[in-house]
Amino acid sequence: MRLIAALPTVFLAIAPAGAPAHHSVAAVYDTTTVVEAEGLIADLSWRNPHVQFQLEGTDASGSAQIWIVEMTSLTNLRRDGISGQLFNVGDQVRVAGNPGRRDSSMIYLENVLLASGDEVILEPRGEPRWANEYLGRAGPIGPGNPSAPELGIFRVWSTPRDQSLLLPEDVNPNFDFDLYPLTTAARASVDAFDPVEDNPILNCVSKGMPTIMEQPYPMQFLSQGDDIILHMEEYDTLRMIHMDPNMTDEGEPFSKLGFSTGRWEDNTLVVRTTKSDWPWFDVVGIPQSQESEMIEHFTLSEDGSRLDYSLTVTDPANFTESVTVTKFWVWYPEMTVEPFQCRI
After folding, report:
1. How far apart are CA 231 and CA 239, in angstroms?
2. Interatomic CA distance for residues 228 and 216, integer angstroms
3. CATH of domain 25-136
C-alpha cells in the first residue's frame, strides 16, 4: 500500500438524512465494539461538527443496507492534512468503527480503506487494520514547543488529541461516583438522562460554562485593555474575564458563560465564574444549578510549552462536595484558532 501524500480539492457538501449532529461520541456509539461495513459512498457532508457520509451496501444476509458513517470534525481533519478529495460519492470503500448504541446502522469511523487500497486512520490512538502504510493517527500529538515564555499565556493553546476529555463522556455502570459525588437529586437526573434525546448540544447549540472548557480545539488568550478574552475555536466562543479587582457579579445578568473575574497569582491566572444559567455540568446528564461557583487555574510552565488547568466546581444542589477536574494544553506555534462555523 502507498502512503497518501496530498489531498487537493474539497468534499461535496450534501447532508446525509437522519445523521446526528454534535454530541458525545461515547454516549451515542459503543466505543468498546468495532464493526466493519463495505459499500458505495452516497451522500457526503464535509463540515463541522462532524464529517459524515452514507454508505450503501449489503448486510451479512445479503439484504440491502444503508449505514450513516460519521467521523471527527472538519477542523481536526484539516489539521491532519485531510482537507480535500479523500473520497467521493460513488467510491467503493471499506470502513471500521464503533456501532451506534441504539441504531446499528450508525458507525463512528476509526479506519477506512479507500478504493485505491490506501488506509486512513481517523482516531489518534488508532492502529492500521488492513494496510502496512497509512495516513492518519490524527494530530496534533506530543509535547509543546519549549520556547517564548515571554509570551505568557497570550498565545494559541492546543489539546493533544491523545489526551482524555476534561469532563465525563459516558455515564455507565463503572462511572466514578467518588470523583463526581452526586446528590440524590443529581443522581436521579443522571439516571433519567437520555444521551440522544436529551443531549444539550445537538443541532449546533453552543455550550455554556463549565462544559465549554472540555472543548478539544485550539483556544487563544487575548488582551483587551486590562481585561482578558479567551477565544475558543469550538462554536467561535468568546469568554470575557474581567481583571478589575473591584468588579463583582452584583447586578450582572445570568448567561450561558456566566460572569468571570480574574487575578494573577505569579504565573497562574485564577478565574472565578458565577451566574451561569447553563443547566449542565457536562453533556451526559450531570446537572448544574444557577448557584454553581467555578474556580479555574491556568498555570504556565517555566519553558512556555504547557498550560496546566484545573477547574473546581462547587454546586451543593448537585454535588455533595466540590469537584475538581484537570487537563493541560500545549503550545504548537503553527496552530491557529480557525472559524468553527458549525452547521447541521
Report:
1. 6
2. 21
3. 2.40.50.140
